[in-house]
Design goal:
single chain; five-stranded mixed β-sheet
Length: about 800
């Protein structure tokens, strides 16, 4: 049905030359801020952090390089799943093995958002020569901004067609500037929250249109069916974010019944087709469930994701809501046997969902996770477990003001609801739109991320109010009030949505413009750059066989994304078993217990980064404290003989000085002398000379072990003790005169060559280096530390030697960082 009050020629002229300025300004603002963010991401991903990060590794193969602002684990997971979809040629990814290695776990993340990323990547692939990996990273940059542009354009068209130019202008202002809503569509931060917010808007828009068309039951029914279908699709995208919007619509139905009560003996208003809404939603839930899980994964009762039981509950609630709303609106209920039976069935359907949650002993879609504790997708945005915690820890800030201010627009909505001067259809529409806002605000007290859904529902309220005010010329002051409030919210939101908005608010415009120029990276960017470097380094050590790490959850995510290195624990709710495995390993009370668990999961490395203290949290979760656990032994360097430290040199990044990462590698059982020698050599390479000297003192317990002698000599050389070093070299020469070095491991023989060269005995080093090069293989090259591998290259170059196998020679260079590689070539 056409709008009962279509835009006049005057209004059309205003839209073209007046109100059109608002969507153009919003578009210009979004384009400018997105361009600045893309430029920053490109700079950090490919130019920052010392040596440039090339899109291709030394072998010419593409490797991931995109740095996600704010180090958002969920964004990396979406990209991983999208890459899996292309790698496996599967539309639905139902299992992964790179978490909770080696068995992995099932995946329940809904497919629609992943399909959107994949569609953007396919479009890029069709217009470029890059592989799918590079195209997925391109999609990460532009998929969410494009989503807002498409969804926003559709919403603006609906607003103008149904409610006029003023409504379209307000809608454009809110879509482009509303904080935190507009932060859900950032470049390089792929996340399904933006898609969920658009579905929240479009779940309510057809209901609003159906209310205004209620004089024609057939037209109203079509609108409500459309709302049910869109709402069901919204449940598919995110049950947790969509279900309260649907519940709010149901509460709004009761409020709509109340505001439409007849006055002065008039006939009750035409009932709204809530049953049709529920039927459409239930069938859509079933179709989405089949599309997602048919036929192999239909026995799972995981209610955090789409499930037919949601449709059953929706249908039952819709039937009860329709009957109760009609009764509130003045219609006398019929109590026929059929009606009573239908009510009972509806009660059973409505109760099925909470009953299932109780039986399963699960919170289902009510469970909290890290994304619900973050207000925005902006790097450094507010994060708190609840609204009260946010207010207590931050006080009254500009972010709080920008979040709360738009909801002053609800005051005119109350006036519309209470004033019978407005048409009953308009008041119904406002009632149905207001209730989801109230529900979302209520949930925001527990999870601050719900302010985004509240913003989405508020956009629909504003649209419904604008349509109501348009039909009553005598209340134009409400129009002015709405425009003023929307403008204030838009200005404050725009400031916070600008890149480096904290600098702008704290130091002014000049400092802000300087901050926009490529400069030193911030803390989260530096962490990601280091973790990317570590991922490439570990991937080089483990080779095609792959590795499995025990590391903090955030590091586990980035190690796989950048290096394909599998791990145990992440923050994903589906990775419960992997998280518990990491807890059990690090909280083990004996090395034997830890070794058994490590063997079960095929763990190759344990990583303790200084910038992420979560390793201690694992031990505390399992044992209540770090003391007495396996992790405490690692902190104290009381290592079992099947574990050895591997030097990892953190790349030099401005602002990240003083940070380090301790990497332990699982190896075959060593004798005591070899184990302590490698610990000593580790301290030397890490320039921790105090600990190196202490460990070298312990090596005196093995006076006849040549490997121990070499390690002590390395400490003396690094400490500048020339006399002690000369004495140790002399002792080493006496031992190798009787071929004692034949029993040394390959890497220790290479270390012996280094000591001999440092001691100016190249004649003795040359034949041993030649023998090392003759016996080299891929595993031996990958086992070398970066420093020892670089020294191998320098010695080979100095002696005019080289690795005869071209493949191994290429690998020996590929394993070096770019700056060392250029010096060695």
């Amino acid at each position: 049905m056409a709008d009962p009050t279509p835009p006049s020629r005057t209004e059309s002229w205003q839209l073209k030359w007046g109100w059109l300025a608002v969507p153009l300004a919003a578009l210009a603002f979004l384009a400018a801020t997105w361009a600045l963010r893309v430029r920053r991401v490109d700079f950090v991903s490919h130019e920052a952090g010392g040596a440039p990060a090339a899109a291709l590794n030394a072998n010419g193969a593409w490797q991931p390089a995109l740095v996600i602002p704010g180090h958002r684990d969920k964004s990396y997971e979406w990209l991983d799943l999208t890459r899996q979809m292309f790698a496996r040629h599967q539309l639905r990814v139902r299992h992964i093995d790179y978490e909770n290695a080696p068995s992995g776990h099932d995946v329940h993340d809904p497919s629609p958002y992943r399909w959107w990323l994949g569609l953007a990547a396919l479009w890029r692939h069709a217009s470029s020569t890059g592989g799918y990996g590079a195209c997925v990273e391109w999609a990460a940059l532009y998929a969410d901004p494009l989503l807002l542009l498409l969804g926003g354009a559709a919403t603006l068209a609906f607003a103008y067609r149904r409610s006029g130019a003023f409504a379209a202008a307000l809608t454009a202002a809110l879509l482009g500037f509303l904080y935190p809503f507009a932060s859900l569509f950032l470049p390089a931060v792929p996340d399904d929250q933006g898609l969920s917010a658009l579905f929240a808007i479009w779940t309510l828009l057809p209901l609003v249109a159906g209310c205004r068309a209620s004089a024609e039951p057939a037209a109203a029914r079509r609108w409500f069916i459309a709302g049910g279908i869109i709402g069901g699709a919204g449940l598919w995208v995110s049950v947790a974010r969509e279900l309260p919007i649907l519940a709010g619509a149901g509460i709004g139905a009761l409020l709509a019944g109340w505001v439409s009560r007849p006055a002065g003996g008039a006939s009750p208003a035409q009932p709204l087709p809530w049953r049709s809404w529920g039927l459409a939603g239930a069938w859509t839930c079933l179709a989405a469930y089949l599309a997602e899980f048919f036929p192999s994964h239909m026995g799972d009762w995981e209610l955090r994701v789409i499930h037919p039981l949601l449709g059953v509950a929706w249908l039952g609630c819709a039937e009860l809501t329709g009957r109760l709303a009609s009764w509130i609106g003045g219609r006398r209920p019929g109590w026929s046997l059929r009606g009573v039976g239908l009510c009972l069935l509806s009660l059973l359907g409505a109760a099925s969902l909470p009953a299932a949650l109780v039986i399963e002993k699960s919170l289902g879609f009510l469970a909290e996770d890290l994304p619900t504790m973050r207000l925005t997708l902006l790097s450094g945005g507010p994060a708190a477990p609840s609204l009260w915690a946010w207010l207590v820890q931050n006080g009254f800030t500009s972010a709080i003001a920008a979040t709360f201010l738009p909801f002053v627009l609800l005051v005119p909505a109350v006036a519309v609801l209470a004033w019978r001067k407005f048409a009953m259809e308009s008041r119904r529409a406002v009632a149905i739109a207001v209730a989801p806002v109230a529900v979302a605000i209520g949930l925001s007290f527990r999870q601050i991320a719900w302010w985004n859904q509240a913003d989405a529902a508020l956009i629909v309220v504003v649209l419904a109010m604008a349509a109501a005010i348009r039909a009553v010329p005598s209340v134009r002051y409400l129009k002015a009030a709405m425009a003023t409030l929307a403008a204030m919210a838009a200005v404050l939101g725009a400031i916070l949505l600008l890149p480096s908005s904290d600098v702008l608010l704290r130091e002014g415009v000049s400092s802000w413009t300087h901050q926009l120029e490529p400069s030193a990276v911030n803390e989260s960017e530096a962490i990601t750059l280091v973790e990317r470097d570590m991922a490439h380094w570990i991937a080089g050590r483990v080779g095609p066989a792959g590795g499995v790490v025990v590391a903090p959850p955030g590091l586990t995510t980035t190690l796989y994304y950048y290096g394909g290195v599998r791990g145990l624990a992440t923050f994903g709710w589906e990775d419960h078993d992997g998280f518990q495995a990491a807890v059990r390993i690090l909280s083990a009370t004996t090395p034997e217990e830890a070794q058994e668990l490590i063997g079960i999961h095929g763990v190759t490395h344990i990583i303790i980064p200084s910038w992420d203290p979560f390793m201690d949290a694992y031990a505390q979760v399992g044992a209540g404290q770090v003391g007495g656990t396996f992790l405490e032994r690692l902190h104290e360097w009381n290592l079992p003989r099947w574990l050895t430290p591997v030097p990892y040199l953190v790349p030099g990044i401005s602002g990240f000085e003083g940070q380090s990462a301790i990497v332990f590698e699982v190896v075959d059982e060593q004798d005591d002398a070899s184990a302590l020698s490698r610990i000593t050599e580790y301290f030397v390479e890490m320039n921790q000379l105090t600990l190196a000297k202490k460990a070298a003192g312990g090596l005196r317990r093995f006076p006849a072990d040549l490997g121990a002698m070499v390690a002590r000599a390395e400490v003396e050389y690094a400490s500048g003790d020339a006399d002690l070093f000369a004495g140790s070299v002399a002792q080493i020469i006496r031992r190798i005169g009787s071929n004692a070095d034949r029993d040394l491991a390959w890497d220790q023989r290479l270390g012996l060559c280094v000591v001999l060269v440092q001691g100016h005995h190249s004649d003795l080093a040359l034949p041993r280096l030649r023998e090392c090069l003759a016996n080299v293989d891929e595993g031996k090259l990958r086992s070398l530390s970066t420093t020892l591998l670089y020294r191998l290259q320098l010695m080979s170059k100095g002696f005019g030697l080289g690795i005869s196998d071209p493949r191994l020679r290429s690998l020996s260079l590929e394993l070096l960082p770019a700056d060392l590689r250029s010096r060695a070539e």
